[in-house]
Design goal:
The complex is a heterotrimer of chains A (263), B (386) and C (199).
Chain A lengths: L1 H12 L6 E5 L4 E5 L14 E5 L8 H23 L9 E5 L4 E5 L14 H9 L8 H19 L2 E2 L8 E6 L2 E6 L6 E2 L3 H18 L4 H17 L2 H21 L8
Antiparallel strand pairs in A: 1-2, 2-3, 3-5, 4-5, 6-9, 7-8
Helix pairs in contact in A: 4-6, 5-6, 5-7, 6-7
Chain B lengths: L14 E8 L4 E10 L16 E9 L10 H22 L5 H4 L2 E7 L3 H18 L3 E5 H13 L5 E5 L4 E7 L2 E7 L5 H12 L7 H10 L14 E2 L2 E2 L2 H16 L19 H27 L3 E5 L6 H12 L5 E4 L2 H4 L3 H13 L28
Parallel strand pairs in B: 1-4, 4-5, 6-11, 11-12
Antiparallel strand pairs in B: 1-2, 2-3, 6-7, 7-8, 9-10
Helix pairs in contact in B: 1-3, 4-11, 5-6, 5-7, 6-8, 8-9
Chain C lengths: L1 E5 L2 E12 L4 H6 L7 E4 L6 H17 L7 H9 L5 H8 L8 E7 L17 E3 L3 H7 L2 H7 L5 E4 L2 E4 L8 E2 L10 H14 L3
Antiparallel strand pairs in C: 1-2, 2-4, 2-5, 3-4, 6-7, 7-8
The chains are: A alpha+beta (263), B alpha/beta (386), C alpha+beta (199).
Chain lengths: 263, 386, 199
């Protein structure tokens, strides 16, 4: 079945774009390539991400086409807006082909040292939890602060990620530490509801607890510290908003992700 | 490890017998179910394979005239009128002569559902329990659907799409609970179809959803689709907007409102859309949303099996779409049941109740048998699974 | 001169040339309909990426959706523009009488005969390499203010900003205070606008 999707995307990209599968979700498949879609002098050492939404056979073709186009565009628009937020690190949008459901993005991250895999937060935390590393290293703390700040910045600007997990956070090596990037905005939206922000934080907390359970308490505390810093830097208005978000986060934590509903 | 034989059958028998009473909506169902006592159940996660034998499965549906829905009061009256007769009929079919000796447990729906009908069935259950001195078990309706579906299809750990008149949920098992991954934010899918059927004034027998399905099949122009809102929000969905929109279209169609450009050609005034087209478009749109959230949940929990339960689960088109989705996933499998088990019935209550009973969970005080209209699937502690 | 094919559209051959000290801009402009190239006023282009991005978008639109203008060359001009108004796009990005730096773009499709006409046969000027450095030499805010009567807006969802650099970008209706600090930042915003315009 995966072969089928590769065939489909190859037929719209043509034979000149070699692709390598990176990840597959319910809705989209992510490939990497070394070919820039339109810049002839982009250099050969760079990599790009192609996010492809394959057509779904079960949907009526007219629903499928409309949805693919709408979602591809929606995600691209959101990315381009997020890119304008100062201090927020998201991948650059390179091209958008809504008719085929392709988005081209810059490739972020690299290989971690000593064969510890790709530099997303998940592998990074696993690396530091493994033998020879210290899980409470200052680097871990600073990195998680940076991640928390990214999420804080996102929420402060009234956007919600919708699917925060440790594999949707990518780290890039900078001089004396790691820079955090948020990726995969397929389920994201603009929202000023405290509920959505609380759920976002809860989803991340659960993800950290399930994949990095031994040190989850410290990790989550550090993430929240970073998150709070962003709000606190905005003065008393920020403090009030922070309190609202954290209170709701606690409520969500008590009842689980779902609202209890009437009827 | 789970020991399903924690509580032994009564009177040294080598099998369990449960009576199930269901009446959370307009269907009144009574079922008698038999589980053999099997040694392998003492140590293993085998709750999907109880070798259940259905001794009786009788049902009576309260049907209203076209254009009308069922009201709680009238439905409760219907249930009260029929409950004794159905229980007697079920016991006769199951050849149970002496209920106090032969029945291990009486299971009834505790919720969710409409208050008055639930209550009338609960009264019948309490009465039987006191009369025959048989223990009682209150069962969550949704868990009943899930357990019956698993028993019939032998699906070990599926993602469950539960679609009925009152519920629309995507459920997966995790850590002793059936967790809800996605659900409707407003009305249920069956409710949406029923209400649209009322607007169309099509018969409510055998069920409004079935009649919409038949109309949709007769749609002559399947190439073009009316554009309806597509409202999936993450793993949740919303349907009230779709209903309001298609309702207004149907009303304009009946009134012959030529100003509506979607329905009538603005120049010639010719009718472009038929009732069949409306039904077809509505089904395609709603089911695409359901299949999508199911697929998301499957990706989320890394499962490759889907089980469709609930009244709307009988819809062949929904099953077909789910099948296509699963074919495109690695080793995907769809499990669906037919109308005997999809539509509310007493056997499923007996199945879930008997599992609960075998794990040693019984009602100790009649106070615990109070029914509840709101009863979330994830409130139930699933002791019988690993 | 840069000749290349886009990987996704190998059947199309694209040639991009940048000319400085152009002396016959007025003549070119009056014959623009007969010249088989897209002629762009280079003073309005801030990076090569902006240009290439528009060419890509033009090919995507013609291949998968529809062509809004008569030729691929005019489609390129339209794709550079922040609005969907064809006339405005030509006026803004098209060549002007006093223009001394010109970018010529030629796109040959699979059905077009291999053209023998060279852009050099039309444009009188010095050809230089079409790279960021050369393009940005001529990108000038004052020129933009002078020549674009209607202020040029990049309409970018709820963000409306003036296409100028450095740092005089006026931001309206934008809740985030966005001011591209670098040419790169401006180029990104423009590429995004090109990729998402009118969709």
């Amino acid at each position: 079945m995966s072969q089928d999707i590769v065939k489909k995307i190859s037929s719209c990209l043509g034979p000149n774009i070699p692709i390598e599968s990176v990840a597959q979700g319910a809705e989209a498949v992510v490939f990497s390539t070394t070919v820039h879609p339109y810049h002839p002098n982009a250099g050969t050492d760079k990599k790009y991400i192609v996010k492809y939404r394959p057509p779904k056979r079960y949907r009526h073709p007219s629903i499928d086409q409309a949805l693919t186009k709408r979602r591809t565009l929606g995600e691209s628009r959101l990315l381009s807006k997020l890119y304008l937020i100062e201090g927020l690190n998201v991948p650059k949008l390179i091209a958008c082909d809504p008719y085929n459901g392709c988005i081209w993005l810059e490739f972020l991250g690299q290989e971690l040292p000593n064969g510890n895999g790709f530099s997303n937060l998940k592998n990074f935390l696993w690396m530091y939890a493994s033998k020879g590393y210290n899980p409470h290293d200052n680097v871990v703390k600073e990195t998680l602060h940076a991640v928390g700040q990214q999420i804080g910045l996102l929420h402060w600007n009234d956007y919600c990620h919708g699917d925060l997990t440790s594999s949707n956070i990518v780290l890039g090596k900078v001089k004396d530490g790691w820079k955090a990037y948020l990726i995969d905005f397929g389920l994201s939206s603009t929202s000023n509801l405290v509920e959505d922000k609380g759920v976002d934080l809860y989803v991340l907390e659960r993800a950290i607890m399930s994949t990095h359970s031994s040190y989850a308490d410290d990790y989550n505390a550090w993430l929240l510290e970073g998150f709070s810093q962003v709000y606190q830097s905005q003065g008393s208005k920020g403090e009030t908003k922070l309190k609202e978000v954290l209170n709701r986060f606690n409520e969500v934590r008590l009842r689980g992700r779902k609202r209890s509903m009437i009827g | 490890m789970v020991n399903l034989n924690t509580v032994r059958p009564k009177n040294g028998r080598d099998y369990y017998i449960a009576l199930g009473l269901e009446g959370s909506a307009n269907k009144l169902g009574v079922g008698v179910l038999k589980h053999p006592l099997l040694p392998q159940h003492e140590d293993g996660d085998l709750s999907f394979n109880c070798h259940a034998e259905i001794l009786a499965n009788v049902r009576d549906t309260y049907i209203t005239p076209p254009g009308e829905g069922f009201l709680p009061r009238d439905t409760a009256r219907h249930h009260k009128n029929w409950c004794i007769r159905l229980i007697k009929q079920a016991l006769k079919e199951a050849s149970i002569v002496n209920p106090s000796l032969d029945i291990d447990v009486i299971c009834f729906t505790k919720g969710p559902g409409m208050g008055a009908p639930l209550h009338s069935v609960a009264i019948a259950a309490r009465t039987c329990s006191l009369l025959w001195e048989v223990p009682l078990i209150g069962v969550n309706h949704c868990v009943g659907h899930i357990e019956m579906g698993r028993e019939i299809t032998k699906a070990v750990n599926p993602v469950v799409l539960y679609v009925s008149g009152g519920n629309t949920q995507v459920i997966a098992y995790s850590e002793k609970r059936y967790r809800i991954f996605g659900e409707t934010l407003d009305i249920a899918i069956g409710n949406c179809l029923d209400r649209f059927a009322r607007t169309l004034r099509i018969p409510n027998a055998p069920s409004p959803g079935y009649n919409i399905e038949q109309l949709a099949k007769r749609c002559a122009n399947k190439e073009t689709l009316l554009e309806l809102p597509y409202t999936v929000k993450g793993m949740d969905l919303s349907m009230s907007g779709i209903l309001a929109y298609i309702d207004s279209l149907a009303k304009d169609l009946f009134r012959g409102n030529k100003k509506n450009k979607t329905l009538f050609d603005p120049k010639t005034g010719e009718q472009k859309v038929t009732v069949e087209d409306l039904c077809y478009s509505l089904q395609e749109n709603l089911f695409a949303m359901l299949v999508e959230i199911t697929e998301r949940a499957m990706a989320h929990v890394n499962s490759n099996q889907v089980l469709i339960v609930g009244g709307v689960g009988c819809n062949v088109r929904l099953q077909e779409m789910m099948q296509m989705m699963c074919e495109d996933r690695a080793n995907g499998q769809v499990h669906a049941t037919d109308e005997r088990f999809c539509i509310d019935n007493g056997v499923m209550i007996a199945q879930a109740g008997l599992l609960q009973y075998r794990m040693g969970d019984v009602v100790k005080d009649l106070k615990e048998t109070v029914v509840t209209q709101k009863f979330r699937t994830d409130e139930v502690y699933v002791a019988w699974r690993e | 001169m840069t000749s290349y094919s886009l990987p996704q559209f190998p059947d199309y051959k694209v040639t991009v040339s940048l000319f400085e000290d152009v002396s016959n801009a007025a003549e070119l402009r009056s014959n623009v309909a007969e010249i088989p190239f897209a002629l762009i006023d280079a003073r309005l282009i801030c990076s090569s990426e902006q240009l290439y991005s528009a060419i890509y978008r033009a090919l995507v639109e013609t291949t998968y959706n529809r062509m809004r203008t008569k030729s691929l060359h005019s489609e390129c001009l339209l794709c550079l523009s922040p609005s969907s108004n064809i006339g405005e796009a030509f006026q803004t990005f098209g060549i002007r009488d006093d223009c001394q730096v010109v970018i010529g773009v030629q796109i040959l499709g699979p059905k077009d005969p291999g053209s023998t006409q060279q852009i050099r046969d039309f444009v009188q000027g010095t050809e230089v390499e079409c790279c960021d450095e050369n393009i940005q030499k001529h990108y000038n805010e004052d020129t933009i203010r002078k020549y674009v009567n209607r202020l040029l807006w990049v309409i970018f969802d709820n963000a409306v900003f003036l296409l100028t650099y450095p740092c005089k970008m006026q931001v309206y209706k934008l809740n985030q205070k966005f001011r591209p600090e670098t040419m790169e930042g401006l180029s990104r915003a423009l590429v995004n606008a090109i990729q998402l315009r009118g969709l």
